[in-house]
Write a structure and sequence with these properties.
2 copies of one chain form a homodimer. With 312 residues, the first copy, chain A, is of the alpha/beta class. Chain A is built from 11 helices and 11 strands. Chain A has helices spanning 8-30, 45-61, 76-87, 109-116, 128-135, 144-155, 175-184, 199-203, 241-248, 253-261, 287-307, and strands at 4-5, 35-41, 64-70, 94-97, 164-168, 188-192, 208-211, 229-232, 236-238, 264-266, 279-280. In chain A, helix 2 (45-61) links the parallel strand 2 and strand 3 (64-70). In chain A, helix 2 (45-61) crosses helix 11 (287-307). The longest helix of chain A is centred in the N-terminal third of the chain and has 23 residues, at 8-30. Chains A and B meet through helix 4, helix 5, helix 7 and strand 6 of A and helix 4, helix 5, helix 7 and strand 6 of B. Strand 6 (188-192) of chain A pairs antiparallel with strand 6 of chain B, so a sheet runs across the interface.
Chain lengths: 312, 312
């Protein structure tokens, strides 16, 4: 038995083609393309890649994407000033500040910056007001990754209502909002984490398992109820060839790919889970493409809401 | 075997006596007592009782409590105008609009009113921004009932970290924030509800069970793992003598009390659960007194934050 593949790349492509009509409509009504402002501080290599991918996806979708680059030496106040200027800039529909900020900015820097973004332009969905509205079942701009997971499950015909869903990980950007969104769709939801006792037994109660902890291959077949649907949100860059060989086997294409590039991105879910699960989202090619698609959708929603403010 | 009683009345009294020093300090610094404004719309008998209890508890604690009464025929705009006036009234520290609003005001009325309350004065903790901050683990004004449950457990020496906590009910004001607060304290958390399959089996996995569904006696001993700690948040007014007799037995003091008053308040948890659980919060005398105490504490926190605005 081998699990059905939940094809995030295909689902993302389908949603993006549907969004084209919205982009055209909004461009007409705004008199300009819907616009996304990305703030990138410093030189973190992974952040640069993420920003480039978002920029590219936005441009391909017909959005105007502007990347505001600040040096790693920038002060927190510089970032806050930029964000406040974008908040009141009528040509800016959505704002995204790429994480992480340089450590020198201080521990609370991210929190202060995310709090400063106008909730109506917060296309990452990280602002407390957007988090609260999600919990209350009336999201304005929901967080991109868990929204992408829901889209993947729904488009791939996975029933959520009435299931027992287990979320591994309790981060603010994936675990907690994921649990709330599954609950909203009538799943019974368990959230487990590093302090959970006998985590394997808890995960084994899940009809749907979403893992978002960032530990390569942590979720093994023994932890999965036969026939469960498994969604892998983990994406850990791996530079240790031994890990890739151990997970995928010495002859696998993943090892060949690793040997060409010197690194690869590995999910939380061990490949052998495919022997037990009924469906499985791969890494890469699973949730990742959906996350960026949801960012595009949020940008369109933010632009639309600015055209016709709701009676809030 | 009989469960230890989690004595909410005693815990609430202890916390209120600790709050006296805060009331004195804030009264000195403000030049007036910390103040709570309660908005009561219409003539719902239960609402009147709740407001009277809050008014009484506030006055006993040395707070200035003002009840703003509007007739059942008031327009939504009247309520919104009052709330907006209180938002900018420097003598008002906390605002509470008693639920429910008259049905004639429309389905979205409560939502619109709660959205209109300034988050910094939202002593019920219902505003989306307060909900979001709770989820993010940095509450300003947390919702009173789940905060009261946490206080009851902690003061009664119940360990939360490392347990499996099951929350029955997914309301915005109890179930969802309760789950987030237990998670924050390192419990593994399951949220179940009316759409949960084999709810008894799910609840039986709980080391801590919090029930907040408002169904008298619904949680029976078969649903409880022996030795679990059970917190009863349900409070349903019962006017059917048969239910009271069936739950408590014909000779019980509860039936005698019912016969004197013509009604009684019954929790979600069947009295026989005391034979299985290691600890149990009663109704009445469990979470109820804590809820009002947390309202007083939130009012003091709101007053304190207005004196020294944090760097938000």
């Amino acid at each position: 038995m081998s699990a059905r593949r939940l094809d995030g790349t295909a689902v993302a492509a389908a949603i993006r083609s549907e969004l084209a009509a919205d982009v055209a409509e909004l461009t007409r009504r705004l008199g300009r393309p819907p616009s996304l402002s990305i703030v990138l501080v410093g030189d973190d290599p992974a952040s640069k890649v993420y920003v480039r991918n978002k920029e590219k996806a936005g441009a391909e979708a017909g959005l105007a994407v502007t990347v505001h680059r600040l040096p790693a030496t920038a002060a927190l106040d510089d970032v806050l000033s930029l964000v406040r200027a974008l908040n009141v800039d009528d040509r800016c529909d959505g704002i995204l500040v790429q994480s992480p900020l340089p450590p020198a900015m201080g521990k609370q820097a991210s929190e202060q910056v995310f709090d400063a973004i106008a909730p109506a332009k917060d296309v990452d969905g990280f602002h407390a007001e957007n988090v609260g509205r999600l919990v209350q079942g009336r999201p304005l701009l929901p967080p991109c990754t868990p929204t992408g997971v829901i889209a993947l499950l729904e488009r791939e015909g996975v029933r959520i209502a009435g299931t027992h869903a287990v979320v591994i990980g309790r981060s603010d950007i994936v675990g907690k909002p994921m649990a709330m969104m599954l609950l909203q769709r009538d799943a019974t939801v368990t959230i487990c984490h590093s302090k959970t006792k006998d985590l394997a037994a808890v995960v084994r109660t899940g009809d749907i398992v979403v893992s978002a902890i960032g530990r390569p291959g942590y979720v093994t077949p023994e932890m999965i109820k036969p026939g469960a649907v498994v969604v892998d949100v983990g994406t850990t860059p791996v530079e240790d060839r031994g890990i890739v060989v151990r997970l995928f086997g010495p002859e696998s294409p993943r090892v060949a790919s690793f040997d060409r590039r010197g690194s690869t991105v590995v999910g939380d879910v061990h490949p052998a889970v495919a022997e037990v699960a009924s469906a499985l989202s791969p890494v890469p090619g699973g949730v990742g493409p959906l996350t960026i698609t949801m960012l595009l959708r949020n940008t369109l929603e933010a632009a639309r809401a600015r055209l016709a403010p709701a009676g809030r």
